[in-house]
Amino acid sequence: MWKTILRRLLIMIPEIIILSVLVFILAKAMPGDPFTGSINPKADASQIHHLMRVNGLYDPWYQQYWNWIVHLFHGDLGTSYEYQEPVTTLIAQRGMNTFWLALFTMILTYVIGLPLGIYAGSHEGKLPDTLVRVYTYITMSIPFFVVLVVGVWIFGYTLNWFPTSGSIASNANGLGSTILSRLQHIILPGLLGALFGTVNIVQYLRSEVIDAKSSDYVKTARSKGVSTKNIYQHHIFRNSLLPIAAFAGYSITGLLGGSIFTEMVFSYPGMGLLFLNAINYRDYTVITSLVLLYGFLNLLGTLLSDIILSIVDPRIRVE
């Protein structure tokens, strides 16, 4: 398996190179520039042209790309035009915020989704199954951003149970206070994100459990006198988890990429909000770095899904 994983990682290199070229060209093709409106509104055009020339934005795109690649291999992703900070520092700071929110959301998603899917599938046609299906239908029919806005309004402003912006309180001092403050800031967005993330898990798992109950290997186990508990535990559940495992890698890397809707509504300083602001302010260095990172995470998600799938089902080998 390790040789296969290494080969897959090597294949990612040309894919990342092609992605970086496309992203760099498209970012430079965006209308506008990072300086108009970000300095003194009364500044004349000559000052803006001077900043464009000093920062090399008038150079041919291939020369700008080459300079960017050279700095990239030295661990320098450039400086943000908007924040006037190194891009590596910005991504590190925002990435940690996104990581904690993604981790909390992912844990809640599987803690809620797995039991619901299994319970609905094992009680097909009964009241619990009907209630779970109603929940999934309602969740799918409501736009995600609407739920986020309503959640902020009810639990943030009306009930004042959770903070509605930021990732940590400014007056948090000490490790315990910092952890508690961070948890308070991620509970509401994480819970709302998990409720929507469970829909696909519940539907897939319910369908797999229903199909597995009528499969030949389950019928054989029943004919041999195997108890219902053991059939569900050792046959139905494990085989039903295969589709969920196949998407686990994408779920992990997708959450790490940051949810733009969630971070925008909650003003949560993560990578999703950073990416949105970078587009608004034509912050080319941040845009190219984040899209390249998202592309790498997507490729990594494919590999993680295959690895997780091979762990869940040893008959499957990563190739």
Automatic annotation (TrEMBL):
The keyword Protein biosynthesis does not apply. InterPro entries: BPD_transp_1_N (IPR045621), MetI-like (IPR000515), MetI-like_sf (IPR035906). It is a multi-pass membrane protein. It is found in: Cell membrane. Keywords: Cell membrane, Membrane, Transmembrane, Transmembrane helix, Transport. Residues 95-305 form the ABC transmembrane type-1 domain. Coiled coil: none annotated. This is ABC transporter permease. The keyword Transmembrane helix applies. The chain crosses the membrane at residues 9-27, 99-122, 134-155, 186-205, 241-266, 286-312. Its main location: membrane. It comes from Bombilactobacillus thymidiniphilus.
